Amino acid sequence: MVGVAQLVEPRVVISAVVGSSPIVHPIFGRLRKAGAFLALALLGAGSAFAAPTLFIASDSTAAKYTGPNPQQGWGEYLGEFFDPQKLQVSNAARGGRSSRTFVTEGHWDEMLANVHAGDFVIIQFGHNDAGGINEEPPGSTRPLRARGSIKGIGDDSQEIDNVVTGKHETVYSYGWYLRKMIADTREKGATPILMSITATNNWKDGHIGCVAAYRFWTWQTAMNEKVAFVDLSRIISDRYQSEGAEKVKAQFGSDATHTNPAGAEKNAADVVSGLRGLPGKKFDSMLSAQGKKIKADPGPSKSAACHAVETLKVQ
To answer: Does one domain contain both 126 and 77?
Structure first.
């Protein structure tokens, strides 16, 4: 039987039919291999253009909450303000953790395993770092959690036999743990962003209270390590002062530290304001329509509820 040419979509095959078995010309075997390599290359290029991820390493003020209390963390709303085709948000915050226990319990390494070059990592701790290192002060009624870090940003350390885990542990300063997270993030080719803690619902003589020590130590570490810094404590405190005590009270759950869903969403908007205010405006092109409505943080004003962080004096 005389060979015939066949056109088969989506590829061309020229074969000489002998009986019922086609004989494929060798050139098309090479073309198929070339096509396979091209397909793999395109798949690789597609992954290279995948949207970066913004990771959140923090405590209960950012974490997802599913319990009975009307409580929610700002990390659960942050994704609403970004275009998911341009930036994904991954909330790795865990309730009750300090900078120390977020590391020692493995939460940091678990999150870090998913961080890739081009990603961003928000690092925000301090609410729980003031707790006892391995014991509570005399007369304290607080549960012993052994989660505190050494105050400040020095290279101090303390050897303990952890009363909670039963393991020997070297405890470091708050700044030491922040520096570790910064170094690990940079080693991954990602960008670390230090953020001061959320403001609490504490007022005195009509004025919102303002965080000092951990806000200052976070800023100090950011300056020393040349890391982006978002002063969320000031941004939120300024908003609270403007809104007034009654409106702010409606944004909290059963205590003065943890927000309800409405308060969490407002705090998330404040995070976006802080991110938009960073030099370079990296996040402006990644915002959703909702995110574009949030104005960039202009920095502290003369009438700010909190003094500029660099003016604080903390021992």
So the answer is: yes
Pair (84, 11) in one structural domain: no
Structural domain harbouring 17: 4-45
pLDDT value of residue 139: 74
54-80 pLDDT tens trace: 999 999 999 999 888 889 999 999 999
Report DSSP letters for 251-284, one per residue.
TB-SSSS-B-HHHHHHHHHHHHHHHHTSTT-TTG
- The CATH number linked to 194 is 3.40.50.1110
Same domain, 141 and 256: yes
Query: Which candidate, 156, 106, 158, 150, places its Cα nearest to that of 132?
Result: 150
Contact 22, 57 (CB under 8 A): no
Distance, in Å, from the CA atom of 171 to the CA atom of 158, rounded to the nearest integer, reads 5
- Per-residue pLDDT at 189: 98
pTM, entire model: 0.83
Residue 39 has pLDDT above 90, yes or no: no
- Residue 87 in tokens: 């930036």
